[in-house]
Specification:
The radius of gyration is 22 Å and the shape is globular. It has 19 helices and no strands. Helices cover about 65% and strands about 0% of the residues. It is mainly alpha-helical. About 45% of the residues are buried.
Length: about 425
């Protein structure tokens, strides 16, 4: 049990930590070369026509908006460009695992299925799976196979069915829709990745454009099919899970894709990111096992998404120079590092204090005290890591503070699930 808990905490910290596809931006620009053997992602016109599947259209790096920055000479070859960012495999023997998880320090591979998995970034599935668990808890209607705390909740067959529903909901939220989100994000970041991380699957040519676009459609349509299946399984008259999945997929698209590309705007992009990691999986899990029939079921996840906005700001501190050069309005660019770090700390802390006050107000002082006890360590890590130097301490802060945040979300969900709102 201790090993499982330690693994969960570590995965949560890594999953919420800055990732290359979400924060890797640069002020550099991509030069063109017709003889490139390293960056094999610029097809000829005929190939472009064959592998274009609206709305995920192919585009040449030579037409990239980054060219307008004119920071790197246009004559620079792709080979020289690739030499800027060689992949350094982790020396601790974890490079193969890192490849499967889709994080830095990964080993090189030509196995197309490993590359496809890497594009979905399995390490980022963890918060979504956790969110589904929180939603199931908030429903108050999840049945254990044998509940040691409640002798009336020991129906093995009902518990098996609920476990199966929960597992399918986690597959929907993790491998399919998060996998879709990460793949489409890499697709629209391929020009920047060609600068910062040319060894990644798409800019390195390890996977073709057609294969990437097929993966996007497969994960999207497969996810929507699973969502509808969950609605049927749950006996919904209105396909709530499908509606949430369509909405979440649309947000994922406009987060990464032009012309809206929400990630270019600090407020909209960071809140969309927070909502995708917290609200949507919570609602999915709760809809599978219960009903979203009270305002509080919508309001609490949205409040935690504001805290998620603060988490997303942490990912932007190291990108401030590149964001500023490209005209991206991340919050550290808009408010400066000093202003953004206070927005970050405030959104995370004030939101949770507000939730704790609400739990106390509805007659749940025990859960309010538990949540407060989980907030205090976060305030400590903000004071000792985030506020002194958010750029140098971003990863350390994420790893230290976020386990307390995610367990606070679970505590809130358990409170909602056990509270009698009819009293």
């Amino acid at each position: 049990m201790k090993l499982l808990l330690a693994t969960t905490l570590a995965a949560q910290a890594v999953a919420f930590s800055p990732g290359p596809s979400l924060s890797a931006r640069s002020a550099s620009f991509v030069g063109s070369s017709s003889s490139s053997s390293t960056i094999n992602m610029i097809p000829q016109k005929k190939q472009q026509e064959e592998t274009t599947f609206f709305p995920f259209e192919s585009s040449s790096l030579t037409k990239s908006p980054l060219r307008s920055a004119n920071i790197v000479p246009a004559s620079e070859s792709d080979t020289a460009l690739a030499a800027k960012g060689p992949n350094e495999e982790a020396a601790d023997g974890s490079s193969d695992l890192r490849q499967l998880l889709g994080v830095k320090g990964a080993s090189e591979t030509t196995d197309i299925w490993k590359i496809r998995l890497q594009l979905t970034k399995p390490v980022t599935w963890v918060p979504l799976v956790w969110g589904v668990m929180c939603g199931a808890a908030a429903s108050g209607n999840y049945h254990w196979m044998w509940n040691p705390f409640d002798e009336t909740d020991r129906n093995v067959m009902l518990g098996l069915e609920d476990a199966a529903k929960g597992f399918v909901a986690m597959i929907l939220a993790g491998p399919f829709l998060t996998g879709y989100t990460q793949t489409i994000n890499d697709w629209y970041d391929r020009e920047i990745d060609a600068i910062n991380e040319p060894y990644r699957p798409i800019p390195s040519g390890k996977i073709s454009e057609g294969e990437v676009i097929f993966q996007i459609w497969f994960l999207l349509l497969g996810g929507l099919g699973i969502a509808y299946g969950l609605d049927v399984w749950a006996g919904h008259e209105f396909p709530t899970v499908l509606a949430l999945s369509i909405f979440g997929s649309f947000i994922s698209y406009i987060y990464s894709a032009p012309p809206l590309k929400l990630k270019q705007n600090g407020w909209a992009g960071n809140f969309a990111l927070g909502a995708s990691y917290i609200s949507l999986p919570w609602w999915c899990g709760q809809a599978v096992f219960g009903e979203l029939d009270k305002p509080v079921f919508w309001v609490l996840p949205i409040l935690y998404s504001v805290a998620g906005l603060g988490i997303a700001i942490v990912n932007d501190f190291k990108s401030i120079e590149g964001d500023r050069a490209l005209g991206l309005q991340s919050l550290p660019v808009a408010f400066g590092i000093d202003g953004a770090k206070w927005i970050c700390a405030g959104s995370v802390t004030v939101t949770q204090l507000g939730v704790a006050a609400y739990l106390y107000s509805i007659g749940e002082p025990t859960y309010a005290a538990i949540l407060l006890a989980l907030i205090l360590p976060q305030i400590y890590f903000q004071a000792t890591l985030l506020l002194p130097d958010p750029v140098a301490n971003d990863v350390k802060y994420q790893a230290s503070a976020q386990p307390f945040l995610v367990f606070g979300i679970l505590a809130t969900a358990l409170c909602v699930g056990h509270h009698d709102f009819s009293a």
